[in-house]
Write a structure and sequence with these properties.
With about 70 residues, the chain is an alpha+beta fold. It has one helix and three strands; from the N terminus they run E-E-E-H.
């Protein structure tokens, strides 16, 4: 299954990313010249790396029927 992400500009400093059926607003805080309509791209990058790690960890635990709390 190919990974497709589309990015549309939805405001002067805001973009909306669409991934499958999910949407994520990306913007800068007002203090940095944005509209604060969403997290900054760098923040989302860190969140996605953490989410990727956790998702794979959970899958590995489930595949091994490990008793982890």
């Amino acid at each position: 299954m190919p990974i497709t992400v589309t990015l549309d500009q939805t405001g002067p400093t805001t973009s909306t990313a669409t991934i499958r059926t999910h949407t994520v607003a990306i913007d800068r805080p007002e203090a940095k010249g944005g509209s604060d309509e969403g997290a900054m791209g760098g923040e989302l990058l860190l969140a996605s790396l953490g989410g990727c790690f956790a998702s794979n960890l959970y899958a590995a635990i489930a595949a091994r029927n490990a008793d982890v709390q």
